[in-house]
Design a protein that fits this description.
2 copies of one chain form a homodimer.
Chain A: E1 2-13, E2 16-28, E3 31-36, E4 48-58, E5 60-66, H1 81-94, H2 99-115, E6 118-124, H3 129-142, E7 145-149, E8 151-152, H4 165-178, E9 185-187, E10 190-191, H5 199-212, E11 216-220, H6 224-233, H7 240-246, E12 255-259, H8 265-274, E13 277-280, H9 282-289, H10 295-300, E14 304-307, H11 319-336, H12 346-358, E15 375-378, H13 390-400, E16 406-411, E17 414-415
Parallel strand pairs in A: 1-4, 5-6, 6-7, 7-9, 8-10, 11-12, 12-13, 13-14
Antiparallel strand pairs in A: 1-2, 2-3, 4-15, 15-16, 16-17
Chain lengths: 419, 419
Amino acid sequence: MELYHGDILYSESSKKLKIFENSYIAVENGKVEGIYTSLPEKFAGADVIDHGRGLIIPAFSDLHVHASQFIQRGIGMDLLLNDWLNTYTFPQESHFAEEEYAEPIYEAYVRDMIRHGTFHASIFTTIHRSSADILYKKLEEKGLWALVGKVNMDFQSPSYLCETTEESLRETEIFLDEHSNSSTVKPILTPRFAPTCSRELLWRLGKLGKKYRTGVQTHIVESRWEAAESCRLFPDCRSDSNIYEEAGLLGNGPSIFAHFIFPTEDDIRVMNEYGCFAVHCPEATNNVIAGIMGVHKLQEQDIHIALGSDIGAGVKNGIYRQCAAAIKLSKLKEFYEPEEAKTIDITNAFFLATKAGGSVFGKIGTFEPGYIFNALVIDGIEDENHPMSPEQRLERFCYAGDDRNIVSRYLNGKPIAVD
Amino acid sequence: MELYHGDILYSESSKKLKIFENSYIAVENGKVEGIYTSLPEKFAGADVIDHGRGLIIPAFSDLHVHASQFIQRGIGMDLLLNDWLNTYTFPQESHFAEEEYAEPIYEAYVRDMIRHGTFHASIFTTIHRSSADILYKKLEEKGLWALVGKVNMDFQSPSYLCETTEESLRETEIFLDEHSNSSTVKPILTPRFAPTCSRELLWRLGKLGKKYRTGVQTHIVESRWEAAESCRLFPDCRSDSNIYEEAGLLGNGPSIFAHFIFPTEDDIRVMNEYGCFAVHCPEATNNVIAGIMGVHKLQEQDIHIALGSDIGAGVKNGIYRQCAAAIKLSKLKEFYEPEEAKTIDITNAFFLATKAGGSVFGKIGTFEPGYIFNALVIDGIEDENHPMSPEQRLERFCYAGDDRNIVSRYLNGKPIAVD
């Protein structure tokens, strides 16, 4: 049993933060046992790790990130999606054919995610299985929670970053097979998006999904261009999401759809029917995609939403940054589309970043009893002689904080170092 | 004569960066003497301070910031302007009546601006002259360039933050008088905005402006509420800007108008006629004001534009952050108002942050010969084995960098320490 003292804060729902100031959290076998406002008799004499006025919060979940694009962050941000892909991203990803190129980038990415308090992530690599394996092992070694996808692209892709359909399926099956026994890191099917996947590929990936009980991640209605192109390529499908439904890719595990900015009614139907996640990546969406997810409206339609960094369209790890970015974009959406949209608040944004995103990985993302104690201690937020409430400290951290404010990290109940 | 070696980058115009890789900048009596791609004979034997691959750029100018709100940064960001003013800002500013309250906040603000590379700023304090004096002295002691305003509010303001007209004028004149001999720090008239100033006050401030040859800073058409309210209060004036024109406040020194989001044709006329600056504060505007300045269109109308942090509606010092935020907002504006707006690029944003903003303070903001060498060295941007061009490093710094990437600072040609 470990005991931690501080100001404890987590999400109960999108509308409610639970806050226990000057309290104790008891952790047993890596899981939360309970929270106590004073130390109960049963813990008398136990060692307490005292974080003072440190804010103890759940670690963050990043539901959409391209680890392979970590090296590109903050470059070419003045382009729109299609140009950005062809100018920077596709050429850069092609180098992941070489393990020696991939290894230091994946190493740097994993260190950086830990540094920024992201302990759970749904990750795109590239089409290259052997380098995807490298990332997979690094995540396992660190004991993080992740879904890792070898990307599929067999169509309308540059020759230097394109597989044959058979190759793509064979490599994917080896990847699923090799990693069928893993614990907190699992494989996930990752067709890049409909514009770069043949029908044959998607439908046969659906069969693999059923065989291996494996979920899927991709990009759905992320831009007007992508939405139109997907519908052009699959004219018999009722929506971008329906392509994956028809292919048999949904319902085999988590379905994680990045961006989801321009949904049709049928997209909403599919999301509801399969309990899919729509991943809001506000910084990335702003940088290269253009358009704003309607978070509030989707929540009213009972869509599960989480947050993503979407590195390299997003520029940095740190889902706390995305909390602030999500609030900012929701304000602009309400400004421009007052009938459609409503501003979200910090309580809602933090819920998306922790409890909502964490639910994909199991009992992750809050401090209710039985949840894994993956936690961060946030400090150095207040100015001298100007104490702030826990909620204010959370808000300032999300808006103006950085990794220096994460003063301790706990993974599975144990301290984890940044190196 | 001092010589610095590195990758030198500055703005020539909104359309052109000047880049000298692996070059030398010669500085004499605090001013740029010239830039050399190799060391000329005349400097043979001179000591060179070598910044290696460090990017040597001009220090930033922040043309709109409330130093008194530094303590509020990142709090209450889910409110809109009017609520945010009444809930947080006005009560907090009232404490600046006490010098003991003001002193540590202004001290922290000045340290933080240096840390983030802002060496020139146009600053709001509060209505309290004696605490404004404290900030003034701190800026002078550090040798920074600044315009500092004692705020005027005699109307429609909460009783705890309101002056009589006579008191406001008397205190302002003392402030102007006391600081008439200063060098790089100068006073500026600072009526908060039309909704909190009586006609009597504004017109008599205009007389003070003429007497002391002092410019003016205020908020103009910053939100639909503010624009409408100003027009309601001054029905005989043709625009928000025309109020200040009629009051005699323009043309006595720099005229610096924050936000400028909803200009009428008459506002544009005034701006052109008096060479006023419109200050774009993209983060702040997004946070509490709602609406996006049309940078590209205003530039086509020959309006001078610069950038501002607008702390505390903005959350942090660092005008490099505002470069990225300005680009992001311009993309959203183009997305929502394609007929009206155009995306700006990093070359343009960096120009606003340095050469455009700096011009208010004299020969500041570029490295052309004769300009003051107020400079930053940016490093730690590149990943190992992945060299980036100077322009890419600038972009990544603006999007994903922080104060740790500012590895050296030069003020008036001398190193300045962060403490």
